[in-house]
Amino acid sequence: MIGASAPGHTAAPGPAVPAPVPPRSNTIDRTAPFYIDLGGMDLRASPPIRDPRNPLYPPATELPDTQVPPTDAIGNFIIGPTHPAAPETKERTGIAKGRIETFTMSSADSVIYKPGIARAENGFNASVAAAATAPDDSSNLLVTTSRPATWTRPVSVYVPAGYVRGTVAPFMIVGDGEYRGGGLLVPTLDALIAERKIPPIVVIFVGSGGQDAQGSQRGREFDTVSGTYAQWIESEVLPAVERNVPVRLTRDPDGRVAMGGSSAGVAAFTMAWFRPDLYRRVLAFSPTFVNQQWPHDPVLPGGAWQYHSPWMGPALPVLAAKGFAAPTAASVGAGAPLIPNSPRKPIRIWFEVGDQDLFYPVPMADGMHDWVLASENMAAALAAKGYQYQFVLARNAKHVDLPTMAQTLPSALIWVWSGYPARSK
Q: Is it true that domain 52-416 has CATH number 3.30.830.10?
């Protein structure tokens, strides 16, 4: 099925091209394993353009073009197709500015991620694109080129203007920190702090471990659905920050934000989900709430897809599934989603996805690699459990879309920090 083009898009000329799904995908029988629904899509674009009014998606408020959701609103919103940069994202004169200090971390000094891993590669993600899946399970990607390896990474620390040495500060962790939020974060922080719209926060930009996706150190850290990455940040990164930069970081989980884009975005949520005693605020652009976990885990076979939705494959034996607080794994099974089957956690999350976000970029016909559907399902799961969240679907936007980030970042930061200051410990 080919849907109408979303406003602001010009579809590629000519006839529709074949659906951009892997070979042998199930796009016919929704009752069979690994079904992929192609409804409500303009397949003449790659990735396809999703219709924001797809009946599979939860209801959302569509805002006038160029507007962003109110910073006190909860729920689902549609923005675009025009994405003007917010004035706070641009370098400003006449205000006090924070400073950046940088140091390097190495796997030689790590306990949790020593050794690291890396793939033998001949081009970006080439071995992932060439990988096969298990004969009886298209959700299990067989990456055979990954080996133990060392890593080094930069860690950059934004210290806000006026910070008094020795003062306990709220802070934000930013995954993929070597990119510094597309160059938008620092001027935005300077502006919002000067305007007292967010607290004077320390921001820790943590470099990724290298490469991307399955079989890489970055993928291992960000896409694993467990508390390991949060523990690495707590036990190795934060002490290194306090040793190398004259700052003191709060232990109050309400004074901590985890932020990221793509796989770093799902990692931000994973930090809060498994360790709400450490993180309770999350900000994510194009979060990878899909099946990217590697190696394949039979206890959580859908990876991050299972935060919001059941595993899309055939029925599985009951295993001791991780991540559930209640009811017990024995009563829900290995393929059950985490959020619907766990008590509400004290997590506040802002997240965004583009209407032309990623769609089956790896050869896994598993029904669990549509970034837009994953975020829409996530919004529905959060709403059903009564979470404090704001979800934005941006028209005319791709994966971790820089114009959309420039439009929404200031209001997203204000939203995610709403209710702070809280007491520091």
A: no
Residue 376 structure tokens? 């829409």
Tell me the torsion sign for CA atoms 269, 274, 279, 281. positive
> Helices marked H in 275-401 — which ranges?
329-332, 371-384
Q: Could you tell me the residue ranges of all domains in the chain?
A: 52-416
Contact 218, 208 (CB under 8 A): yes
The CA-atom distances, in angstroms, between 116 and each of 124, 207, 225, 236 are 19, 14, 18, 15
Q: How confident is the model over 128-146, as pLDDT tens digits?
A: 888 899 988 999 999 999 9
Whether residue 233 contacts residue 173, with contact meaning beta carbons closer than 8 Å, is answered with yes
Helix extents (H) in 4-136: 126-129
Instruction: Please tell me whether the overall predicted TM-score, pTM, comes out greater than 0.85 for this model.
Output: yes
Q: Among candidates 39, 15, 35, which has minimal Cα distance to 25?
A: 35
How do residues 65-117 score in pLDDT, each as one tens digit?
999 999 999 999 999 999 999 999 999 999 999 999 999 999 999 999 999 99
d(CA 335, CA 317): 9
SS3 state at 234: helix
Please give the angle made by the CA atoms of 36, 357 and 119, to the nearest 5 degrees.
85
CA trace torsion 161, 162, 168, 169 (10° rounding): -30
